[in-house]
Amino acid sequence: MNQQLMGNPELTVTDAAELHEGLNHIVVDSIQYGYQEMIMEKDLPVTMVDGHVLYVNVFRPNKAGQFPVVISADTYGKDNKPKITNMGPVWPTLGPIPTSSFTPEESPDPGFWVPNDYVVVKVALRGSAGSLGALKPWGLDEAKDYAEVIEWAGRQQWSNGNVGTNGVSYLAVTQWWVASLQPKHLKAMIPWEGLNDMYREIAFHGGIPDTGFYRFWHQGLMMRWPDNQQIENLPAQQQNHPLFDDYWKGKQADLSAIHIPILACASWSTQGLHNRGSFEGFKQAASHQKWLYVHGRKEWETYYTREALEMQKAFFDYFLKGIENDWTETPAVSYELRDKFYKGTRKEAKAWPLPETTAEAYYLNADSLMMEQQCPAEEAVISYDSSSENDEVRFTKTFDQKTELTGNMKLKLWVSSEEADDMDLFIGIKKLDRNGAEVHFPDFNHIEKGQVAAGWLRVSHRALDTERSTPLQPWLKHEERQLMKPGEIVSAEVEILPSGTLFKVGESIQVVIKASEVIKGSSTFGAKTRYEHTETVNNGRYHIHTGKHYDSHLLVPVIK
């Protein structure tokens, strides 16, 4: 073994309280390599073109040379220790998150990267951690700052000129944005689960405002930086912009402008936040060299596994160091086909959506509450009370052969109401075992008893973008409201977020339709770390029409 990677057990790990501004010689408690000496430059100022100063921390090898840079940027605090590793009593379902003591949450770990001859740069974006100015998450201004720091890092004497972005969540969102600006020193990116459509993926779900995590997250920014009076009021923007207008368009990066190599990670288990955006980022980026890694487990736990770290390193070794490893033989798409909780099979594909996908319709029958291969010959109606959190409708199909469903699903419903001019539809897709018991999966946000997939729709938002829609993925415009008339039967298509699940003979798929959240509650005591939707338009009884002229159905992605 390389002696450098052995570490030295006789060293003493540096206490963060001992750090000072400028150059520090430190010892880091690397999980992978033992106690490691390195250099940390703390609170380095980087001046933007408009005169604002951002501050960064730099971790680099304790030796001469020029090294590639692994960089991440957010407004959480560059000196913030990984508090997520200490939240067991409050957030008991996070899973193991092994990092060194110098790893800010969701960030690349210096304890892994520096011993492998990389420089790690952590950026405090404008409005955070001493960097003054307006804090406006996930927009062009923030991306311009990030691009300037990338160019700065590429010019430093310890840099070989090759910079790669890396990180989870917020740190992935900023990657999609900055890569679209094409800074010349940015050579590769690892966006590990991050949204890129702020309207559809966090602020609103199917046009229904998220009153849970979206607002909780904004409150968290306010609590981190209580002295900053220039933090964008995201809840107010949500209230003032209920439709997809120029404000929300300004929160979207031009993914087609991204051309650098990408290793993107997506998860079946972050639906309602990062799931959709991770797939869309991969699909829409113009990069010729791009890879997609998909799992069905927990976000932070998976990012810091040794398997994931070695995959990230192999990618950066190839594109930032020029090492002729076998990275280019990596399948373009690698995904976990889930069987049950933390049990699945890894599969490979050439593209996403999977080229071998066949769209099959399972037609709803309101009489039998089953899903059938053919549209029922007779019309039928089933109703539920939108004022009741417990009233719901479930349709079930039992499989007579082993079936893989991987990709987006679409639920087409014919609906009506005598009392309401609008409806909020909450959709859950579930797997049942041969005994009829639900098979649970990890779900957002780190909950244990999650479902296969989810979808939402405010029916007045049902207008489709016909150019962007595909048979399995309706693309909703969200640009106007189309209210219903009393008794009018309208057709609505619900986007069901991507998932990958195996159904064996005798197992069943179930569609849940109701007027409130299918899965309620949070995995965190006293905090709204999961989406919720309490500002609904529900009123009275809702009717689902099936059969004959009303081809209500679930369209599923069968992999042959």
UniProtKB/TrEMBL annotation:
The keyword Transmembrane does not apply. It holds the Pfam family PepX_C. SUPFAM superfamilies: alpha/beta-Hydrolases, Galactose-binding domain-like. InterPro entries: AB_hydrolase_fold, CocE/Ser_esterase, Galactose-bd-like_sf, Xaa-Pro-like_dom, Xaa-Pro_dipept_C, Xaa-Pro_dipeptidyl-ppase/CocE. Residues 313-555 form the Xaa-Pro dipeptidyl-peptidase C-terminal domain. This is CocE/NonD family hydrolase. It comes from the Bacteria. One of its GO terms (molecular function) is hydrolase activity. PANTHER family: COCE_NOND FAMILY, PUTATIVE (AFU_ORTHOLOGUE AFUA_7G00600)-RELATED (PTHR43056:SF10), PEPTIDASE S9 PROLYL OLIGOPEPTIDASE (PTHR43056). Keywords: Hydrolase.
